[in-house]
Design goal:
heterodimer, A: about 350 residues, globular, B: about 900 residues, mainly beta, Maltoporin, Chain A, 22-stranded antiparallel β-barrel
């Protein structure tokens, strides 16, 4: 039997071609990071302000992208190369009848640096709640600020009804590059009642027992508070904000602050911030829990948490807390504060 | 008085030994010249060379199962005579057909073992064809002392004599091949189809001319070569069926070989094979520490493509060159659909993975053999490349806030009480992972062997020396992208599809409608603004796993082989020097679990070994040998253990660090084996072996260590986990094998033959105790070596008469420690497994044969447990699968 080697080679080649390996059968390739568009998103899910606030704002920004230089392994914002028009809309509101009763006007800007901002073009219809804002090239975020009627909700009654505004991004036009806008997320602004727990509460530093209880409670996590002398303190505040609480110690000692070229003399402060995990803010009494993660001197991180309850009677706040900082704990401590 | 014959006074007898009927080369034949101790052994192509004293000589060629053949030759000084020996088989007369393929295959294997210089097992192509073993790993499971690790029911890694895969050297045509996988050196042998191979040799003791990094042994895969001017075409075509998936499979092979020209100087062999297999498994897994259960439904499509060629040219009786190529490509498309029940979080995850992976191995060997009047020189260069390419590895996860209760009263099948877990409307999007990786391993090798034959008092001797240079470049790169939702992705029912199987675990669990990865990716591509990349996770994964490594090996050896009456001594030494350079990255994660820093790092290390080797064979009679060996060997660490990549997780207080200073494991090996061969092609053998492993590598915890371990520490107290060299480990074992036909039995029973082997091993390794802590860090404990099964064996009964061959085979893999846990109670073991396969063929004539095979008839699962036997952590079932086809030989 005479066999042509070419025939054999051909057969071998056919076998090779037959070897489809199902690599691409029923396969859709996902967009890679390089193909992934720059996505304009709401920077936050929400914010809140006291009922007498005359403005509120939300921020739109760009999702982090892979750093092409590799300097920021966790990614960074890569600004747009050409401007885009972002459409937004107040999709719902509660606690009032007509949008224009509360929203008076709107404007937008971005930060040039820590001291200066630059306005950007914005359109907004206070009747429909629809607007557009230019997201300029080279910018990381744009803030849209609404002027509000500060008197609409400002009363002396503790309100438990919802008073909020929900904003969503709806479209993106005009961008010549590869950009998109997230339309699924929402920003909710909540009007907070200053007859409830929100706002500033002042501790009576002239009451030595109260002062010492404050030191014991928050000195657990802050060495400066632990070593406080009452003679050094001007005032102590506990400030409840949207999802955040601050213990602020204003010292008598002052310092020179350079405020964008203007030198001001201000009191030094010690500030301890924590995230509110849980609070019954629709009640005048209830449970509260807040905490944070702190970096220790060795570089490792330790979490602290304060849990307890609060009660508001006649503009006086009684808050009962127990602190934990790693394995260190405080007793249950009661603080009394006033608006 | 000792007489040393000078080389100049010699003559050479060269020859080829073939079967007289089918012209197959006979491998391992014994060629003995007058006087008894001038001898040689035919190689895999039936070739031999014998240096003799000029004058009249009687040349006797012996081969198990064949009649001895004697030539009377007269040689002048410096004359070269070529002998073409055609031996007559004794099987044909016995079995009633022309030649029995099985018996001839068995004969080839046993003749090579019998006449080998060292302790060696050989599987011939014919034998591989008789067992239903589609890949090299599964063929090797039939060898005494070998067990295999399986993946989805198919053999993948080889464990020789109870030692993990990294202790075995894998070669193609005598040269080490690279591993396509990322961080290891060993080769997944399911990538290599048996159809491509002429033989597999397993050397259990080392001679100085073999690579020294082979503590367990050395596996050499030998590709085929053209034999005669008559064109030979072998082909097979088969179709099959997988019972679990209810799907077919297809297999084909075509081989062409022919020698051309005057004196058949030029030979060409081309071989191609292809195997397409649809398979799957039903899997249940449990995590006892977390009280979690997973149900996994696997669907796979695997293909194996093999292409090989051998071109050789014989310039003269003395000089020849060859060029061998091998390309094998294994592809694996896998869909993994699973539930993860997490009662502690009141959550159930539902995920689907769609992954494609290809492993390819390419080798080019160019070499030459020169037989000069008084010495010989062989040299060879090899380029080999292994690659594992995963162009996509996509997994989409959804999660439901559904409580579940898990009950383990039946430890084999946990009871799951989770109302509504099949309702896809309950599942919200969690995360999408899109990965792609590529691992590359390239070897460039050059070597030579130089031999000077001599005789002392009519006893054959050989002095041999050689050197080798190998440069290895290995790298791994990974691109892993994770995406989470910014908000509001549709629930899972929007992306589901029909199940691929009608039932899972015979209806014991309801997997519902699975998530379709394709459907989800279509949505993802259409709505990218709904997703955000998790860049930090990507950066961590990519930095931790990627590396580049370069390794240079320089080796040389000097050995002598001397026959003396009934004795054969092979002794010498080998020197190997290895230089390694690595580049990778450190990943620092801060106390909050966030990525803090990625730091490029590099490492370098040199090490060298001087390895004395001694093998002794004592021939009690023509059919009986006693063999002994005392050898030294070593094993290089896996790349994953030595690359300096480190993860410092301050949140968990644990740092995982590579160890570029890790020393290779060194070993002393002692072997003693007795073997008796039966003239009707059989063997009875028994032996013992002992291995002492020094600097055994294990995972050590350095409690409350400063970090980094060298230089200025920037972390004062952290537990550092690092592969380190331990004390010694001891391994002892017994190997028994019997293989013969049962012709002494009456009637039809005389057509049966038996193939049985059994290996017992025992090991003990001394490590840092798992109960050690900062107060007693040096506390020791003894464990079994991971991968060491006490009992491994095969039992196979075959019936062969008038063209009919039927075989039932049992392969037993004993229980072994798979992973060493943080405490003994967390050690993970793989349970015993006995697989039963049957195969049958009928030869209509010497050219046509039909065959049928069925595997895993008893549906043996892969079972793993943690700590105690009843605490199963994995049970995976595959059902049975089979093939039916035709083979022809022109």
């Amino acid at each position: 039997m005479k066999i042509n080697t070419g025939v054999a080679c051909c057969i071998a080649t056919v076998l090779l071609l037959l070897s489809c390996d199902k690599k691409n059968e029923d396969l859709t390739t996902p967009l890679s990071l390089d193909q992934f568009p720059a996505v304009i998103v709401l920077a936050d899910e929400g914010d809140g302000g006291l009922e007498d606030e005359d403005k509120f704002s939300f921020v739109i920004t760009l999702s982090d992208r892979k750093d092409p230089d590799g300097q920021e392994p966790g990614g960074k914002i890569i600004p747009l190369l050409s401007p885009a028009t972002v459409h937004f809309e107040i999709t719902s509101f509660e606690g009032f009848n007509k949008l224009s009763d509360y929203i008076l006007d709107a404007s937008a800007f971005y930060e040039l640096n820590d001291c200066n901002t630059e306005d950007v073009d914005l359109t907004f219809d206070v009747n429909t709640g629809k607007g557009t804002v230019i997201f300029p090239a080279g910018v990381e975020e744009v803030e849209i600020e609404f002027e509000t009627d500060e008197s609409l909700f400002d009363d002396a009654v503790f309100n438990t009804d919802e008073r909020s505004i929900t904003i969503q991004l709806t479209d993106l036009t005009g961008n010549t590059g590869k950009a998109a806008v997230n339309t699924s997320a929402a920003f909710v602004y909540e009007v907070q009642d200053d007859e409830g727990i929100y706002g500033e509460w002042k501790l009576d530093i002239n009451d030595p027992a109260e002062f010492n209880r404050f030191k014991t409670l928050f000195g657990l996590v802050n060495e400066d508070i632990r070593n406080l002398e009452v003679d050094d303190v001007d005032e102590i505040l506990l400030e409840f904000e949207y999802e955040e609480v601050k213990a602020i110690v204003v010292l008598k000692e002052t310092e020179q602050i350079d405020d964008c070229g203007s030198i001001d003399t201000e009191n030094k402060i010690i500030e301890l911030e924590a995230e509110i995990e849980d609070v019954d803010d629709k009640e005048l009494s209830g449970e509260i829990e807040f905490g944070e993660i702190l970096e220790t001197v060795t570089g490792s991180l330790r979490a602290f948490v304060y849990t307890g309850s609060f009660e508001i009677i006649n503009s006086k706040l009684k808050i009962v807390l127990r602190g934990e900082f790693g394995s260190d704990k405080t007793e249950v401590i009661t603080l009394n504060l006033e608006k | 008085m000792v007489t040393i014959i000078a080389n100049a006074q010699r003559a050479i007898v060269k020859g080829t030994i073939r079967d007289a009927v089918n012209m197959e080369a006979l491998t391992g034949a014994s060629i003995v010249a007058t006087g008894g101790n001038l001898s040689s052994v035919s190689d895999v192509n039936g070739h031999f060379t014998l240096y003799v004293k000029p004058g009249d000589i009687r040349l006797t060629i012996s081969y198990l199962g064949y009649s001895d053949t004697t030539f009377l030759l007269n040689l002048r000084e410096k004359e070269i005579i070529t002998v073409e020996a055609l031996l007559n088989s004794r099987f044909g007369q016995l079995s009633g057909i022309v030649v029995s393929g099985l018996m001839q295959g068995q004969a080839k294997a046993l003749n090579q073992q019998k006449n080998a210089d060292n302790i060696r097992n050989v599987i011939s192509a014919d034998q591989m064809g008789r067992f239903p073993d589609p890949n090299a790993a599964e063929a090797l499971q039939r060898v005494p002392g070998i067990n295999i690790e399986r993946d989805q029911g198919e053999g993948r890694y080889v464990l020789v004599r109870g030692l993990a895969p990294q202790f075995t050297n894998i070669s193609v045509n005598g040269e080490q091949i690279p591993s396509p996988e990322a961080d290891v050196r060993f080769v997944a042998l399911d990538a290599i189809p048996t159809d491509q191979l002429a033989a597999i040799e397993v050397s259990k003791t080392l001679t100085p001319d073999l690579d020294g990094d082979a503590i367990a042994g050395s596996v050499n895969l030998i590709t085929r070569m053209a034999q005669s001017k008559k064109p030979r075409i072998n082909a097979s075509l088969a179709g099959g069926y997988n019972n679990l998936m209810k799907r077919g499979n297809v297999q084909g092979q075509l081989q062409y070989g022919q020698r051309f020209g005057i004196n058949e100087k030029f030979g060409m062999l081309l071989n191609s094979s292809y195997y397409h297999n649809d398979l799957g498994s039903d899997n249940v897994e449990r995590s006892p520490l977390d009280n979690e259960v997973e149900l996994r439904d696997y669907e796979l499509t695997r293909t194996r493509l093999g292409l090989s060629s051998t071109l050789d040219y014989r310039f003269s009786k003395q000089h020849e060159i060859f060029f061998r190529t091998l390309y094998s490509r294994f592809t694996d498309r896998e869909w993994r659909r699973r539930y993860v029940f997490i009662p502690e979080d009141d959550e159930i995850e539902k995920l689907t993975k769609d992954r494609f992976e290809s492993q390819s191995i390419t080798t080019f060997n160019l070499g030459a053999k020169h037989n000069f009047k008084s010495w010989f020189l062989n040299y060879e260069t090899q380029y080999s490349y292994g690659e594992q390419n995963t162009p996509y590895d996509n997994e989409i996860g959804f999660v439901a806030g559904i409580p579940s209760q898990l009950n383990y009263n039946n430890p084999k099948f946990p009871t799951i009480d989770a109302p509504g877990f099949n309702d896809n409307t309950n599942y919200e999007f969690d995360e999408a992972g899109f990965g792609k990786t590529i691992a590359k391993d390239r070897n460039l090798t050059a070597k030579f062997d130089l031999g000077i034959p001599y005789t002392i008092n009519k006893n054959t001797g050989l002095i041999k020396a050689g050197a080798k240079y190998r440069q290895k470049d290995k790298s791994y790169s990974i691109q892993q992208e994770y995406f989470s939702a910014i908000a509001n992705i549709p629930t899972l029912e929007q992306f589901d599809e029909a199940p691929v199987k009608s039932s899972f675990f015979d209806g014991r669990y309801n997997m519902g409608r699975p998530l379709s990865v394709t459907s989800f990716i279509n949505f993802f591509n259409a709505n990218p603004s709904l997703f955000q990349p998790e860049l930090e996770d990507m950066a961590i994964d990519e930095a931790l796993e990627a590396f580049d490594a370069k390794e240079t090996v320089l080796a040389g050896y000097l050995m002598a082989k001397q026959e003396f009456r009934r004795w054969l001594l092979i002794g010498g030494f080998r020197y190997e020097r290895t230089t390694v350079d690595y580049q990778s990255k450190d990943v620092v994660i801060d106390g909050g679990g966030d990525l803090q820093q990625i730091i490029p790092v590099s490492g370098k290390r040199n090490y060298e070994f001087f390895l004395p080797q001694l093998n002794v064979r004592y021939r009690i009679n023509k059919m009986t040998n006693i063999r002994g060996a005392a050898t030294f060997s070593y094993a290089r660490p896996n790349f994953g253990e030595i690359i300096p990549a480190q993860e410092i997780n301050q949140e968990d207080g644990i740092a995982t660090a590579g160890n570029p200073d890790l020393k290779p494991v060194s070993a002393f090996n002692a072997d003693l084996l007795g073997e008796h061969y039966f003239g009707n092609v059989g063997i009875l053998s028994g032996g013992v072996f002992y291995k002492r492993l020094n600097d055994f590598i294990y995972r050590r915890v350095l409690f409350n260590s400063s970090y980094p371990l060298t230089g200025t520490p920037y972390i004062q107290e952290i537990d550092v986990i690092q592969a380190q060299n331990g004390n010694r480990a001891d391994l002892t074992g017994i190997e028994l094998a019997f293989q013969n036909n049962l012709r002494f039995l009456p009637g039809l029973f005389q057509y049966f033959s038996l193939y049985v082997n059994y290996t017992y091993t025992h090991s003990s390794a001394s490590l840092q105790s798992r109960t050690a802590d900062a107060s007693k860090p040096e506390e020791k404990e003894k464990i079994k070596l991971p991968g060491q099964a006490a009992h491994v064996g095969n039992l196979s009964l075959a019936f062969e008469r008038k063209g009919l061959n039927a075989r039932i085979s049992l392969n037993f893999n004993g229980e072994y420690l798979s992973e060493v846990g943080a405490v003994a109670e967390e050690d993970i073991y793989v349970k015993n497994r006995v697989q039963m396969d049957v195969s049958a063929s009928y030869a209509f004539n010497a050219r046509w044969r039909i065959f049928a095979e069925a595997l895993n008839l008893t549906n043996q699962p892969l079972e793993r447990y943690m700590g105690i036997k009843s605490q199963y952590i994995q049970r995976e079932f595959y059902s049975w699968w089979g093939r039916f086809g035709v083979k022809f030989d022109f």
